[in-house]
């Protein structure tokens, strides 16, 4: 039952070329930077990433993106990541944009063994009708567009069918974890982390504090260890390396 792995490099050693990854985090909050860094050092490419956004301020997934290691992104926010936008418009990157709540539920559904579900989000738009640019041709045209999805009426309201998401691996970051893989997240770092962890067939968690089994109150567990296969304990230096995206100070 002891799922602790000695190093991040060892934890991601079997992630192959072209693997699919669900990655937790939102902006700079709760991003598994150490695992992403270990994956960068491995040199694997052609990755398909499912995450709310693809890194920020040259950290997180932006490290893999800038190195040309990511082939496809499923997410809901491009934001101010200029390199993401450049690769997308140049036809170097395939992008499936999804409403944020739908993305969260697709990850949760995949982890819960639910193959598909209906939601009103996106009905009457290209999300349901198809035609969203997945890949550009680099000349301003669309090389690949999203297909139409099934729309069905329930009690007078239309809903679009969305598929659950499963990935080969998941990378997440938690504030606390035990050797059995039970995880606790700190405030906003909870964001997409539990959902990404559920979606991964092999889930790897970097934890800021490693404790022994039984030291986490069962009622305090945010993600049960059944969803986690590997745990990496961070060093104090790794734990403390947290950046601020928008610094605001009083006058």
Automatic annotation (TrEMBL):
<dbReference type="Pfam" id="PF01144">
    <property type="entry name" value="CoA_trans"/>
</dbReference>
<keyword id="KW-0808">Transferase</keyword>
<dbReference type="GO" id="GO:0016740">
    <property type="term" value="F:transferase activity"/>
</dbReference>
<dbReference type="InterPro" id="IPR037171">
    <property type="entry name" value="NagB/RpiA_transferase-like"/>
</dbReference>
<dbReference type="InterPro" id="IPR004165">
    <property type="entry name" value="CoA_trans_fam_I"/>
</dbReference>
<protein>
    <submittedName>
        <fullName>CoA transferase subunit A</fullName>
    </submittedName>
</protein>
<dbReference type="InterPro" id="IPR012792">
    <property type="entry name" value="3-oxoacid_CoA-transf_A"/>
</dbReference>
């Amino acid at each position: 039952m002891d799922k602790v792995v000695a190093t991040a490099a060892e934890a991601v050693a079997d992630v192959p070329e072209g693997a699919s990854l669900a990655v937790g985090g939102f902006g700079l909050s709760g991003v598994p930077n150490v695992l992403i860094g270990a994956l960068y050092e491995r040199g694997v490419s052609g990755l398909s990433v499912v995450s709310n956004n693809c890194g920020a301020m040259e950290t997180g997934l932006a490290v893999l993106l800038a190195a040309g290691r990511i082939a496809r992104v499923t997410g809901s926010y491009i934001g101010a990541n200029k390199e993401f936008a450049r690769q997308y418009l140049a036809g170097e990157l395939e992008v499936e944009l999804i409403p944020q709540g739908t993305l969260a539920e697709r990850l949760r559904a995949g982890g819960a063994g639910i193959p598909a579900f209906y939601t009103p989000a996106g009905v009457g738009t290209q999300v349901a009708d198809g035609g969203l640019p997945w890949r550009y041709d680099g000349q301003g045209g669309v090389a690949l567009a999203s297909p139409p999805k099934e729309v069905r009426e329930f009690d007078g309201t239309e809903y679009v069918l969305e598929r659950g998401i499963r990935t080969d691996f998941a990378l997440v970051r938690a504030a606390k974890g035990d050797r059995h893989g039970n995880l606790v997240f700190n405030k906003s770092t909870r964001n997409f982390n539990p959902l990404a962890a559920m979606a991964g067939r092999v889930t790897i968690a970097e934890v800021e504090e490693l404790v022994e089994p039984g030291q986490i109150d069962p009622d305090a567990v945010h993600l049960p260890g059944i969803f986690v296969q590997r745990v990496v304990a961070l060093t104090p230096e790794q734990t403390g390396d947290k950046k601020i995206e928008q610094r605001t100070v009083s006058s």
